[in-house]
Structure formats: structure tokens, C-alpha cells
Amino acid sequence: MDLAHSLRLIAPEETLSIASLVLLLVAAWSGDKASRLISILAVAVLVGCMALVAPALCYGLSGPDVAAFGGQYRADAFAAFAKLLIYGSSAAALIIAPAFFDRLGQMRAEYPVLILLAALGMGMMASAGDLLTLYIGLELNSLASYVLAALLRNDGRSAESGLKYFVLGALASGILLFGVSLVYGFTGTTSFAGINAALSGNLAAGALFGIVFVLAGLAFKIAAVPFHMWTPDVYEGAPTPVTTFFATASKASALALLMRVSLEAFGSQADAWRQIVIFAAIASIVVGALGAIGQSNIKRLMAYSSINNVGFVLIGLAVATPQGAAAMLTYLVIYIAMSLGGFVAILMLKDEDGRPLEAIADLSGLSRTRPGLALALAMIMFSLAGIPPLFGFWGKFVVFQAAVQAGFVALAAIGIAASVIGAFYYIKIVKIMYFDEPVDTVRGRSDWAHTALLVITAVFMSPLGYLLTKWLDGLAQTAASVLFLAA
Amino acid sequence: MIHVFAFYLFAVLTIASGAVTILARNPVHSVLWLILAFFNAAGLMVLVGAEFIAMLLVIVYVGAVAVLFLFVVMMLDIDFAELRAGFVKNFPLGMLIAVVLLAEIVLGVGAYKAGAMHLGTPDGTAITAPGASNIAAIGQLMYGRYLFLFEASGLVLLVAMIGAIVLTHRQRSDSRGQNVAKQNARRPDEATINMKPEVGKGMTL
């Protein structure tokens, strides 16, 4: 292992950490009035990091050449794919924030710094090749997330969401660490490749316990049933830009980590964890769909929608084939675009004084008062429900295709049947916007950054998105194939 | 011989002070017993040749953590009567948890004795040069093999610090901060006044 080579490979992490330290100093000296400048610089840094990781994906890098620090860190195509998603959605969370916080006078200079540090931890999760990297990346990301959730100190709901996230997150970390220690005890190594080799053959009962605990800890992070209880409360209480960050970047990094751990470290024992993942997938789809029906707050509704969507992604994981993994990545890209669009649309729901509106009842008759916004929201809802010809359908299609190809016809059938339940509440929103009497509460002016992001995501979700399928599938397959080299 | 004697001395004292930590009625005494347990554990560490961990135990746990505990315990206003009031009500629950923990221990020891459990063996990558002292070995791993993770842990601590400041620090109008420049610029003749008070008249400041 050559130190200089390793240091070259972790260039995105170095850039992010140095940038966050410098910006922290700027924040400390200039205070909150510099927050806009710091946000702009932070977005520039994230875009720069995207440029740094993109070559690894374009050239499909993998293997020992891109392993840094003795395999603790990988700068391969899969990590690059996940990092592009993570850095991109972190940048989006920075762009949408000022308009929300400025009205409250709560735009803190630390917000961009914390987002950068969280993105750094998420990048480490996506690049993890060792249980230690996994844990430290996860903690770096989680710790920053707890603070971000509680950022609005004067708002009781924000404090509640931060506290709930912290307590339950700490519990999940404990479960994960317990699993990690069992896996280490029974395999004698913390590196994913070593664990994969040590687990092949007969599986010791203790190692199985370890796998179950690790997966349970990670299921909390991706908000899969039965570890989803925190999601609606945290998504509702956290400031909306932070919720957007949780629903996009956090989700992408946790799913990338779950894929790495299950397919790289536990890949030789796919039969052992498959039933767990299948249960979590079906339960998430059903609970996400049923739980959303009774909601009256649109942020809670989006939280249940995210639980529901995680279930579909997990179907790809249960398949445990390169096609399944590629389908997961494709689904993830489309889901992130949809959920970003959804939350930006929620940010644009403001009353005359600019107060954010979150009740679904406020959407009544939106098509007559704000036709453009209503159209975008309707597209997002139809797309989340997976109704063709919108792009959301393509994500579900590739996941089910991978499941059927690998012989999991029953799993795919249950998934398709359950997605019909989910379609009910998405279409209910569309019905409220288009057929109910207008209440005309949404009157606030929209920020140009919000409008621009909403238009971009809406175009991506429209049938025009299908022009990208070939390119997107190619990249997803390149990235996913990296995970199956060891197996 | 002295080895065996020292081991049993430290071991018995560790277990005994650990037990008294739980049994002591006064929480302050509990913390003091805990400190004794730490000291004896450090003695055990010295016996097995891990002198660095022994020092760490004394400096970090006794010097910092236990003293912090002591402060917290002394600041808490604990009503002992109220503490004991819930005892009978929670007794069944406590017993249940104790039984579950006991069953787990018995199960674990039994499984280990049965010999079916085979634990993994270290892959040997973490071995350092023979003959190196404890500190040198730990340092080589931390700043060599685990350099990346060590630095990243530093960032985790930084985030914790930023978080604590972001969530608790607020600008208050009635707080008066220190102005070093103003203090340094102060001259003795501005700071002191020579007064000649007359007898029986008092004086104004």
C-alpha cells in the first residue's frame, strides 16, 4: 500500500473536509450574514467533488487499483455512482434552503458546513470496504443529521424530531455495532473481502446473528419496516430543506451502504439474508402504502411514500443478481429526482405571508389558483405511483423485471399488487387538487431557485426521461457489476 | 508467585468494588467505589503487559470520566425515598430482565463449552513489529494502517462540537463579553481616581 496513491484516491473526501474546515472558519468570523456566501461556496465544492468522482464511473474502475488504505476505502465505479447522487442531492438541499430559512431569520452559517460534513460521511459510507469505515462514515453522517433536524431551535416540532432521531439513531447504531462485533468475532476480519471469504461454506450461528443485527441496524437508516417508526415524525418536524436532504442524500447513501454490505461482505451467504430482505421489502411496501392513507400532513405523506419506495428498492436487493443491483440504482436515481421535486413543490406551498403550508387540505383546488404548481405536483404523484408514461414507471419496471428474470415471480407479483394500494393516496392528492373546491390559501411568491429545480425534476420525470434510459442503465450496470467481482 | 498473588489481589478487589458500586446506597460512594474498580482493572492490565491501556484507564476513566460522574451525581437532587418507592412495583420486571440476562449467560457459556462454536482467527494484518512497546504498536496502527479512519473520527468529534454550539449557543443582549483590546488599552490613571473625602460627609463614586 502506497500512501501517496491512497491519498490521491480519497481526493473527494480531502476536498470536502478541507473545504468544510475553511468554511467553518469563515462562519465563525463572519457570523450568519455570510451564510449565503458560504452556501454558494459549498455548492461549488460539491460540484467540484462530483467532477472528481465522475471519471471513476465513466471508466468503470474497480479492483485493487482503486482500493485505498489496504482496502478500507474504495474509489470504484459503484462508489462514484452513489457519490454523484449524494453530492448532487446535498447541493440541491443547499440551493433550496435560503428561501426557507430567511423568512424565519434562521439561516445559520453552520447549515452549509454541516451539510458538507454529512456529505463527507455519506461518501465514506458509499466507499466503505471495511466495517470500520462503514461505522465511522455512518456516525459522521448521522451526527450531522441529528443537528440538522433540530436546527430550528425555537420550533418545538424541530426539536422533537431531532431528539427522536438522535435517540432512535443511537439505538440503531448500538444494534449495528453489536452485529459488527459478532461478525468480526466469527470471521476474524473487518474487511468486506475477508468477511466474504470467511463466511463462504457453512454459516456459524453466531455469524448469522451478526448478519441479522447488521442488517437491522442498516434497515433503520434506510427506514425499512419494521424499523421505520421514526420516519414520519422526523420528516414532519425537521425543517423542509433538511427533510429533503434526508429523503434524498441520506436515503441514497444508506442504500448504497446496504448494497455494499449485503452483496460484498455477505455476498457468499445471500440465501441466509434473502428472506429478511424479502420480508422487509414486502412489509415496507404494504405499511408505507397503508400508513399514508390517513395522513393529513403532506410531509408525513411523503415520509410514508419514502418507506413505500424503499420496499421496491429492496426487491432489487433480494434478487441479489447484477441485474437486481443495477435496477436498484436506476430506481434510486428516479426516486431521488421524484422526491426532490416533491419536497421542492412542498416548499413552494406558502400562504400570503410566506408561511409554509403543510396540510393536504390547503391543496384543494390548486389547479385553478396555481395551475403550474398543481400540474408539477400531479406529475410527481403519478410518477411516484408508477403510472406510465411518467418516468417513475421505468424504475418499478426494471426492478420487477430483474425479480422475474431471477425467478422471483411471486415477489414481483406481491410488489405489483401492493403498488396498487399505494396508487390510491397519490391519486387522492391529485383529486384534491383538481376536483375539490378551491380554498385559495397558496398565494406566496415562489423563489426562482425552487421554480428552476421543480422544472428540471418535472422534465426528468416526464416521458422525456425515457430518452435517458439507455445511458442510465449503462451506468447503473457498470456500477453494479463492481459489487459482484468478489463473489 | 508474586504474579499470582498480585493477580488475585487485583481481581478480587475489582469484583468486590464493582459489586459495592451497585450495592452502595449513596451514589457518591458508588462513584468512589467505581474509581477503585478502575484502579484495580488498571493493575490487571499492567500484569498482562498492556501498560499503555493501564495508563489510559487511570488518566481517562479515573481522571476524567469518573470525576465527571462525581460532579453530575453531586449536582443531582436525588430523593432516596422516592427512588425506593418504585422498588416493589418494578420488582417483577427487574427480576424478569435479570432472568433473561442470566439465561443468556448460561446459554453462551454452555454453547462455548459444547465446542460447536468456532470463532474466527485474526487475519494477522494488524500485527506490528515484534519487540515494539505498547505505545509504539498502537501508534503504528493508528497513524499507519488506520490513518484514514483516525482522521475521520476526528471529524466526527468536530461535528459533535459544532452541533453542541449550534444547538445551545445564543446571542443574548444582557451578556457582557470580554473585550481584550479595551482591557489592554486601559491606563492606570483612567482606572483609579484620587479622592479626599471629608470627615462625616460621605463620598460619591
TrEMBL record, chain A:
According to the UniProt entry, what is the EC number of this protein?
7.1.1.-
Q: A single GO CC term, please?
A: plasma membrane
Enumerate the subcellular locations listed in this protein's record, separating them with semicolons: Cell membrane; Endomembrane system; Membrane
Offer an example of a GO molecular function term for this protein: quinone binding
Q: Name one GO biological process term.
A: ATP synthesis coupled electron transport
Summarize the subunit comment.
NDH-1 is composed of 14 different subunits. Subunits NuoA, H, J, K, L, M, N constitute the membrane sector of the complex.
Which NCBIfam families does the UniProt entry name for this protein?
A: NDH_I_N (TIGR01770), PRK05777.1-3 (NF004440)
The protein's name in its UniProt record: NADH-quinone oxidoreductase subunit N
State the organism named in the record.
Novosphingobium chloroacetimidivorans
Automatic annotation (TrEMBL), chain B:
Q: Which InterPro entries match?
A: NADH_UbQ/plastoQ_OxRdtase_su6, Nuo/plastoQ_OxRdtase_6_NuoJ
- Pfam short name (any one): Oxidored_q3
Asked whether the keyword NADP is assigned, the reply is: no
Q: What is its main location?
A: membrane
List all membrane-crossing ranges: 6-24, 31-50, 56-78, 90-112, 146-167
The organism's place on the tree of life at top rank:
Bacteria
Can you list the GO cellular component terms from the UniProt entry?
plasma membrane
Keyword field contains Transmembrane: yes
In residue numbers, the region (Disordered) covers 176-205
Gene Ontology MF annotations: NADH dehydrogenase (ubiquinone) activity; quinone binding
According to Swiss-Prot or TrEMBL, what is its membrane topology? Multi-pass membrane protein
Task: Extract the signal peptide range.
Answer: none
Q: Which UniProt keywords apply?
A: Cell membrane, Membrane, NAD, Quinone, Transmembrane, Transmembrane helix
Compartment(s) where it occurs, according to its Swiss-Prot or TrEMBL record = Cell membrane
Q: What is its EC number?
A: 7.1.1.-
Reactions the enzyme catalyzes: a quinone + NADH + 5 H(+)(in) = a quinol + NAD(+) + 4 H(+)(out)
Q: Which family does it belong to?
A: Belongs to the complex I subunit 6 family.
Q: What does this protein do?
A: NDH-1 shuttles electrons from NADH, via FMN and iron-sulfur (Fe-S) centers, to quinones in the respiratory chain. Couples the redox reaction to proton translocation (for every two electrons transferred, four hydrogen ions are translocated across the cytoplasmic membrane), and thus conserves the redox energy in a proton gradient.
Q: What is this protein called?
A: NADH-quinone oxidoreductase subunit J
Q: Which organism was this protein described from?
A: Novosphingobium chloroacetimidivorans
